[in-house]
UniProtKB/TrEMBL annotation:
GO molecular function, one term: protein histidine kinase activity
This enzyme's EC code(s): 2.7.13.3
Stated name of the protein: histidine kinase
Segments forming domain GAF: 25-167
SMART domains membership: GAF, HWE_HK
Signal peptide (residue range): none
Gene3D superfamilies cross-referenced by the UniProt entry: 3.30.450.40, Histidine kinase-like ATPase, C-terminal domain (3.30.565.10)
Domain of life from the UniProt record: Bacteria
Lineage of source species: Bacteria, Pseudomonadati, Pseudomonadota, Alphaproteobacteria, Rhodobacterales
Amino acid sequence: MLAPIHPHQKERLAAIRRYDLGTQAHGGAFDGIVELAAQMSNCPIALVSIVHADDQKFEAVCGLDFHGTNLESSMCSHAILQEEILEIPDTRVDIRTRDNPLVTGPDPILFYAGAQITTKAGIPLGSLCVLDRRPRRLGDAERRALRILANQVMQRLELHEALRQQDAMRREVDHRVKNSLANVAAMTRMAARSATPEVREAMLSVEKRISVMVELHNDLYRSDNPDEPIEVTNYLERVASHLRDMSPPGVEIEVHFDSVALIARRASALGVLINEMISNACKHAFPDGRTGRIVLSGQKTNAGRYAIACADDGVGSVDASEPGLGQRIMEASAAQLEGLLRTFPSPDGYRTEIEFPVTVD
């Protein structure tokens, strides 16, 4: 017997979509629950079954080798029509199931009990059900356990939805921050055009630092989990490419990075550090229109560490009584990375290095 359509079918189907059911989003999340339901009820089969518009799909299966049926074979479509657990001791004699293909076919299902998986608004999505190939009844403790486990399924769905909303909000914030930073960078660049040479240099330096953060937010916006390490090689190369576009005429910038994954906070510090390395080399190594080359490299070393080196073939360092802003920013970034910054003359010019742990406790 085909079950009547639920009186709140529109709301039901909307909730199913909202919880990403039938999309593989919950793969494996309910496997332990159906195994426990089967053990506690002493039934060979247990399912998390969601009743869709045209079929039922099993989000978790124990004891069957298929993952859904049409509605003509769905017992759970009857279960969602009532508030209490639906228990059918012998499916061969119940009018709702006696002509069900799973009952009339080979190796028939002869017992069904399903506890509704219901939202806080009282909308049933499907059921946690147990099935047997012999007629029987559940005891009171088994019925309570089935109800508790069905509630556990719903709680996990609510958690999934809360995390999805949190992720959507985080992405929106990242998107807005990225756009705001990009606007600030653009306005700074425009204002620099009419400024004095000294002010222009300072404003363009600020613009480059803002652009580094824009690139980082681009990667964060694409990341599924902001707390997990993200592959930052492309990000670092984009930062270097941006600096290449702004480098003095005749100064070439070469970059090469081994693959590395960092959490967002450390990726930001590394991006700022690379920005300052190249900017300092452009500023100090090639005065008076001198041409030359800057080589920036990142390499994996032993024991989970990563080494960055920036070498130029310019005139060397500029003597100063105290470190400039760029040097202080590099030292602060190095501290965030838990690495030691070294700057020293090289046979061809000047070199800045840092080695830091890829992961931290």
